[in-house]
Predict the 3D structure of the following.
Amino acid sequence: MHKLKNQQGATLMMALLLLLAASMVSAVILTAATSSARRLENDRAARQAYLTVSSAARLLRDDILNASFVQETVKTTYTDDTSTETSRETTSPTGFTAAWLKAGKAAVDRDSGKSFTDTITLSVDGLDDVSAVFTMAPNYDITIVLHLVDGGDSDCRLVLTLRENKADPTVSTVSGGGLWVRDVTTTTTTISWPSDNATIEKEAVVSKS
C-alpha cells in the first residue's frame, strides 16, 4: 500500500514537470511568433517608407532635369568706343519645382556666396506626406533631403543631389549692324542639371561618440 502511494506521488510530480515544460515551450513559441510578426510589420513599414520617399525623390529629380535657365546678354560697341549692354532671361523653369528653382537662383544671385534653403511637404493621394528640404549652393548645385513627415522608427531618409552643368557661356560676335555700330557680342549662359550629375542615395548616419 505504501509503495502504491509513492508511485502515485511520483506520477503526479512527473505530470507537473511535463506541464511546466509545456508551458515554457508555449511561452517561447508565443514570444518568437510575436517577435516575428512585429519584425515583419516593421519590415513592411520600412519598405513602404522607402517606396514612398524614393518615388518623391524621382519625381523631383525628373522635373529638375527638364528645367533650365538661359540668359542672353547683348553688348553693342559703337564706333566712338562707347558701348551698351542689355540682359534678358530667354528660358526659365516651368515645372512644379519652378518656384523653388527661381527662388533659389534669385537668392544665390542676390547674396553671392550664400546658399538658399527651403522646406516643403509633398502630398500625393494614397501615400504618406514627404518632407523635402531643398538647398541650392552658390554654384547652383542642388541638394534635397527627403523623409516621411511622420516616419517614426520606420522612416527612410534619402538625399537627392543634382550638380549644375558648369558649361562655359557661348559667345558670338557680329561686326557692323548699323551706321554707328562697330560690333554686337551676344553671350548666352545656361544653368541646367544633366542626368549624369544626378544621384539618389541614403542619407549618411553620423554616429555620436
The helical segments are 2-65, 98-110.
